[in-house]
Amino acid sequence: MAMVNAFNAENFEKLSAEEQRLIERRERVLGPAYRLFYERPVHIVRGEGIWLYDAAGRKYLDAYNNVASMGHCHPRVVDAIARQTATLNTHTRYMHEGILEYAEQLVATFPSHLSQVMFTCTGSEANDLAVRIARQFTGGTGIIVTSLAYHGLTGAVAEFSPSLGEFVNLGPHVRTVRAPDAYRVSPEEAKTRFGQDVQAAIDDLERHGIKPAMLIVDTIFSSDGVVPDPKGFLKPAVDAIREAGGLFVADEVQPGFGRTGETMWGFQRHGVAPDIVTLGKPMANGYPMAGVVLRPEIVAEFGAKARYFNTFGGNPVAAAAGMTVLEIIKDERLQENAAEVGRYIMDGFKDLARDFECIGDVRGSGLFIGIELVSDRQRKTPDASKTSGLVNGLRERGVLISASGPFGNVLKVRPPLVFSRANADQLLEASRDTLANL
């Protein structure tokens, strides 16, 4: 999955001399581990709202980036960061009302049992901290994730991020389960199977003398191909991990902050109550900020025995940016916009499916949508080649998108929450044109 839509050396000769020069510079100074999007990478120099602009001045409709969830360079966020930077930026070892006000407003968006927050800089750090706290609270080490999950890049978290690929080893304390697939099985079977798979993973951990510490899922299953439904399918799995003495961790780095439309947080769609929630990416609209929201009794022993400090995590500038994001979501009714425009996009792709047999399934919630492409609609045969063709064809038509899923055949639509119907029409028109020319 990590290599879906990545630039590779085979396409180097197709690039202009300037593009080749930039890639050579990049490889020389950044090394071989980085990846670029698209067969013909995009050289982005500016962003505004839902638009990204390349070095030649061409603008691209951004239908993919959820970091700048309020839109690129939102003027209110830019102003909040600039004003606070010009006033003070320190850390959480000094008292600062702005940090406390933001923390209070943030936890107020969660169910009342999730009443404390700890700040980090990245989602990877947030999940790393969640693991430490879960292990302290449960006395266990075992972790259960979905088979193509991505939760981060620290040493501890990479061990339970199987989407990083076969050369990044999973920890011996990690078990993977299939993500639900309501496209290929009935919704009820998908729900039942996921609970059974988690129970089997728990049983296998215990059989090897490993006490379960936590089940962690991205609540929209984005790397697994975007799995929003059936609602409630998480509950049997959550019940199973709790029965085994473990915790349920909801990774809201991607689905959180109103993106799913119906609810502020992805886990709320399933009617489950997490023990820990991890946050990141859109939390401060591009300013590095993330966090862990949790039940106070879970962190009590950890806090008594281990001090926690993150030099940049939750600093006053981050808090100012984060507070502004919460205000924008409310003031601009972005959760409602995500629900309305998301339905419009899904309806549009369902209309396209009448003309293009390769569109096998359209699913999603709010502005997190997956379109599964197949070579045989009856057999539901994944078609990664056509998906890659669509992604790169859209790039040539000025629309940026990507793909995910175990077979690399699920188009991932995840635009900034300020995406409008007019933007959706451009996406749909470009998709029709690209599909017609594949």
Automatic annotation (TrEMBL):
GO molecular function list: pyridoxal phosphate binding; transaminase activity
Keywords: Aminotransferase, Pyridoxal phosphate, Transferase
Keyword Plastid assigned: no
Keyword Transmembrane helix assigned: no
Cofactor(s) recorded in Swiss-Prot or TrEMBL: pyridoxal 5'-phosphate
A Pfam match: Aminotran_3
Transmembrane segments: none
Family that this chain belongs to: Belongs to the class-III pyridoxal-phosphate-dependent aminotransferase family.
PANTHER family: ALANINE--GLYOXYLATE AMINOTRANSFERASE 2-LIKE, PTHR45688
Identification of the protein by name: Aspartate aminotransferase family protein
Organism in which the protein naturally occurs: Rhizobium setariae
Lineage: Bacteria, Pseudomonadati, Pseudomonadota, Alphaproteobacteria, Hyphomicrobiales
